[in-house]
What we know:
Elements: E1 2-6, H1 17-20, E2 27-28, E3 31-32, H2 33-43, E4 48-53, H3 57-67, E5 71-76, H4 83-89, E6 99-102, E7 106-109, H5 112-117, E8 121-127, E9 135-140, E10 143-149, E11 158-166, H6 169-181, H7 192-201, E12 206-210, E13 213-216, H8 220-232, E14 243-245, E15 249-251, E16 256-258, E17 260-262, E18 266-268, E19 273-275, E20 278-280, E21 282-284, E22 289-291, E23 294-296, E24 299-300, E25 305-307
Parallel strand pairs: 1-4, 1-6, 4-5, 8-12, 14-17, 15-18, 16-19, 17-20, 18-21, 19-22, 20-23, 21-24, 22-25
Antiparallel strand pairs: 2-3, 6-11, 7-13, 8-11, 9-10
Helix pairs in contact: 4-6, 4-7, 6-7
Bound molecules: uridine 5'-triphosphate (UTP).
Amino acid sequence: xxxxxxxxxxxxxLRPHTYTLPKVLLNVAGKPIIGHILDRVIKYGxxxxxxxxxxxxxxxxxxxxxxxSIRVDFVEQEEPLGLGHxxxxxxxxxxxxxxxxxxxxxxxxxxxxxxxxxxxxxxxVKEVENPKRFGVAETSEGFITRLxxxxxxxxxxxxxxxxxxxxxxxxxxxxxxxxxxxxIRTKGEFQLTDALQLMLDxxxxxxxxxxxxxxxCGKPETxxxxxxxxxxxxxxxxxxxxxxxxxxxxxxxxxxxxHSVIGPYATIAESATVENSIxxxxxxxxxxxxxxxxxxxxxxxxxxxxxxxxxxVNIGEASELEFY
Length: 324
Ligand code: UTP
């Protein structure tokens, strides 16, 4: 079984981190995002993957080849012309067998085995407050009847969350080809949602698949929320002299942490140094140094340095002092 994972995007919303590191290599709960995705895909029996790389793609390739042994075909998307375009470029790696498409910036908790048993194409969906930002699915009697990418006036709150199990990949490729040939773009890009709508027009039956556990990694605040969720669901035994740990946390055995309070919800990656600091709800990436600092809701990039300072006060009775 094959999974296609498009990761060619530039990740503008996660700058400055994505100036030097592709989004999927950002560390959440002790592992790059793509590591969490591949672990899940492998767990559900997928043994082949196509990874569509582009921006900083060599780094992704190096990480995957060094850490995973399943068969992976890397496909290059030189220009990020849209998700539909990325999938179209992977066509030579796809046979007649069903494929899973899973976006590279989403960590999910979902039973992919159930989706893979369906007799129809299955799209992961979740009810959201603001469907305008998403591709949206309209349904009737258990089937998807219409798909619209980022609708101005949404008629459904079911957002497409980035997990697609495609029963007839050759039909999808045909639809993508037509989309690109006719230069049909939405918001300037060749959209997968538009190709899926063409599949519906050509008689493909699709069912929605409710995905409760859907954790986006596309923005700083959602990356931190995903970090929190993953830490809650993994146990990392840590006990260190001179460190107070408030679980859940991830502290790499290769991090140097001294005289600090870590957690809750802190990830301290490999080779990071943390001294005399309090860190919660934050990601401290590889090789970075944090000293004398109080950090909350923070992302510290690889090899970055944060130095805080202690305040000196001499205030008398009934004074009130606040530091922001
Ligand atoms: P996003 O829309 O989140 O794009 O793509 P992005 O570039 O990663 O992030 P922003 O919007 O600039 O902050 C969703 C997924 O589809 C991939 C992305 O890499 C991401 O995994 N994608 C998107 C491609 O592979 N190629 C594209 O042309 C567009």
